[in-house]
Specification:
alpha+beta
């Protein structure tokens, strides 16, 4: 006899046998969606897997690692500078690996005190609360010393289970459903240790686990290669402009008042514009071998437009500040504008290699490049501007320059407003840039384009791994894929 039977969907009404009630007496747990999408599909004996509880997969010798409670961090954590030990928080996690932006560091005393939170590599990190509840990733080997925030579970699995496969399952739609089913609290959703251990995971053959896990591992390798290529490109730019010297020069030129000869007053007549150290920094660059050029001499600048819709319409991506990632534009939560509006707003249509810059709010100067294998057309919101270089491929080298400390000072010099900050198009045009040799621009461009392509391919592999698991559960997994060795970890 079936243990469950869906009687009605709206409202959800499910008949449940006595032995099933022993799992959990909770209407949300027995909601028809979970019965239909989890219990029925995962109990299908015709599929190529068995189902085990998460707790049965965890290494019993290190089960304390699933605790995730490391005393009160507010009392016991001493933050320090970048010479300290990385402290991994939920904001440093993603399906695609570690996010090193806004990374915090702790001192050695704190690291030694928080014994349970030390990371070695190959553990699954699982966010147990907040907006990103249920996010899983494998902490990489070779990262070095690191410690963990107390809102993340650290889990070590038995050797016979592929950790990267398990992480991919937790991140796929079925894993997310299990997290939703077992979480508690409405204002601050949380999943406790015992509930985390109850997540049911399909366990296929080791061959299938490896095939799927290899995609995640290969994705990690591509991201590491992307990081290396970017660092090499940044080093080229930094050496070319002698960045360290420019930073020291900037410290010397920081003032709160300054006399300016009338001959040097141009465009703006306000103190904030002229006390910026960038003027002296540019003079210093001009005195060296670095030539200078104003942005308006080598590029066109334009801005976006206001658009709102209550519907999630099909159309053209409408890029906002929140969509600007590190190098790239993140389309995962982008909204669309309709085709008619896109055609009408020709001046805001993006072209390949355009730089997109935030021009309002707290993140003025945030800049990304419009380059994608996936998105061919996009347009801009009113709080962003584009910079289109006369030679489009030059933009990559200048993207890296604008991301340096000196480049950011160049951008922020033109900010107006105290509470509602804004950057005018004319002030963007007046930004002074160093001249780069064509060979330098080409070398930097090639490294960054390869880096971006690696990031894109990495994301694709992660999505493929999740899709493979979903196909496995739904009985659609193609066993012939096991003969494909192109994604094996190197």
């Amino acid at each position: 006899m079936s243990k469950t039977q869906i009687m009605l969907e709206k409202p959800s009404a499910v008949w449940v046998s006595n032995d099933k009630i022993k799992e959990k007496v909770d209407a949300n747990y027995m909601h028809y969606r979970f019965i239909e999408l989890l219990d029925i599909k995962m109990d299908d004996n015709s599929n190529h897997f068995e189902v085990k509880e998460n707790g049965d997969l965890i290494n019993t010798l290190t089960d304390y690692t699933a605790n995730g409670s490391f005393e009160s961090l507010n009392k016991n954590v001493n933050y320090t500078n970048s010479l300290g030990i990385p402290f991994i928080r939920i904001k440093n996690m993603s399906e695609n690996g570690l996010v090193l932006d806004d990374l915090k560091y702790i001192d050695t005393h704190t690291y030694n005190f928080l014994k349970k939170s030390k990371l070695e590599g190959n553990e699954i990190l699982f966010s147990k609360t907040g907006a990103n509840l249920g996010l899983a990733m494998v902490f990489p080997y070779g990262f070095g010393k690191a410690s963990l925030a107390d809102n993340i579970f650290k889990v070590e699995y038995k050797s016979e289970y592929d950790t990267h496969y398990i992480a991919a399952f937790i991140n796929c739609k079925f894993g997310k459903l299990w997290v939703e089913r077992l979480s508690q609290g409405s204002a601050q959703p949380t999943i406790i240790k015992d509930s985390f251990r109850q997540i049911k995971i399909p366990i296929p053959s080791s061959e299938i686990q490896k095939h799927i896990g290899d995609k995640v591992r290969r994705g990690e390798e591509l991201r590491e290669e992307a990081k290396r290529l970017r660092e090499e490109a940044e080093e080229i730019i930094n050496k070319l402009i002698n960045l360290d010297s420019l930073i020291e020069k900037g410290k010397e030129c920081t003032v709160i008042s300054k006399w300016v000869d009338s001959i040097n007053v141009r465009g703006r007549v306000d103190g904030q514009y002229y006390i910026s150290p960038i003027t002296e920094i540019n003079k210093y660059m001009a005195s060296t071998d670095v030539g200078l050029v104003s942005l308006k001499e080598v590029a066109k600048v334009g801005k976006g437009f206001s658009f709102s819709s209550d519907e999630n319409i099909e159309g053209i991506p409408y890029v906002r500040i929140s969509d600007l990632e590190d190098l790239l534009i993140d389309y995962s939560e982008v909204v669309n504008t309709d085709y008619k509006t896109y055609q009408q707003k020709k001046n805001a249509q993006l072209k390949e290699y355009d730089l997109v810059m935030a021009i309002t709010g707290a993140t003025i100067g945030k800049v990304s490049v419009f380059y994608s294998k996936e998105i061919e057309k996009a347009t801009l919101s009113a709080d962003t501007a584009y910079v289109r270089f006369n030679n489009p491929t030059d933009s990559i080298a200048y993207l890296l320059y604008l991301k340096t400390i000196i480049g950011q000072v160049s951008i922020t010099q033109g900010i107006t407003g105290a509470t509602n900050k804004h950057l005018a198009i004319e002030d963007i045009k007046n930004i002074i840039l160093p001249k780069f040799d064509e060979k330098i621009k080409e070398t930097v461009r090639n490294k960054i384009v390869q880096s971006i392509d690696n990031i894109y391919n990495s994301k694709q592999l992660i999505q493929e791994a999740k899709q493979d698991i979903e196909d496995l559960i739904e009985g659609k997994f193609d066993m012939l894929k096991l003969n494909d060795t192109t994604t094996e970890s190197r």
